[in-house]
Amino acid sequence: MRILFAGTPEVAVPSLRALLDSPHEVVAVLTRPDAPSGRGRALRPSPVRVLAEEAGVPVLTPDSLRGEDVLSQLRDLDVEAAAVVAYGNLVPPAALAIPPRGWVNLHFSLLPAWRGAAPAQRAVLAGQESTGMTTFLLEKGMDTGPVLATRDVAIDPFETAGSLLDRMAVDGAPLLVETLDALADGTARPVPQSEEGATRAAKLTPAEAELDLSLPAPEVSARIRGMSPHPGAWTTWEGERMKVLSVEPLRAEAPPLAPGRLHATRRQLLIGTGSEPLALAQLAPAGRRAMRAADWARGAGLAEGAAFGAADHSADDPAERPADEQESTR
């Protein structure tokens, strides 16, 4: 089939590459306009644009798909279908009507769960042990169109949303190609979505990323992993924001720690939560790049009682309580 591909960020690149290697003909690529990036805020092309230009595929970068000029351009392409992966722009009804076989979206959840902008992130934040991918036909509603194919995906207990999304971007590419193959040979069977079990995956915000270290360890872990790498879960250290980007398995038995209290070993940095301690893997101090948490702890020279968040946790720390008080609370 003659295909239009619409996508913008890095997660869309594996799907474009798979389509370029498939029997389908990618006749043009639709992507967001160049955007400021990096410390100098220079305009940079999207990762999808970079790959398309390397492959010699014409690129369209309209701000919107509502204008008659861009709609006319899309009609002139004479495509049979459009493939969409994280395009980042609304496709209005006038554009949806152009390809006769429709717009096929690769979405990173098992619809109708997590409709919206951050499906993989919301699955991790919810503490799910598995999620999935869906290909479906775009319609006017937000991720409400009929489903064409699905694939289950397990979530590793220490996996971040970023690594999960990277993995699904690669594993979802063949699913998208197989779906387009099925559309081309007439074997695709769209199944309407049920509204039962539908959930929204709203975009993440920095305010939402603040850690509550008094919550049980599984909830703190899910918050850290679901917010990583962007916007990054955060707490405070000496009055400044400290991003906490990932956790890892404990390498030894951990001492009891109050919420926020830090304990450094030779190889790990542990932090207290509302239940058992967590081992932190990566941190990003204010104005600095991400680094190993254990390396930061060695450089910081942590004093006894050092903690993230509130300044004084001594009254909450089981190890700091009088022995008779500890006994009375068991």
TrEMBL record:
Q: Recite the UniProt keywords alphabetically.
A: Protein biosynthesis, Transferase
Q: What is its EC number?
A: 2.1.2.9
Residues noted as binding (6S)-5,6,7,8-tetrahydrofolate in the record, renumbered to the chain? S109, L110, L111, P112
**Stretches assigned to the Formyl transferase N-terminal domain:** 1-179
Q: Does the keyword Transferase apply?
A: yes
Q: Where is the composition biased (Basic and acidic residues)?
A: 313-330
Q: Which family does it belong to?
A: Belongs to the Fmt family.
**What is the name of this protein?**
Methionyl-tRNA formyltransferase
Gene expressing this chain: fmt
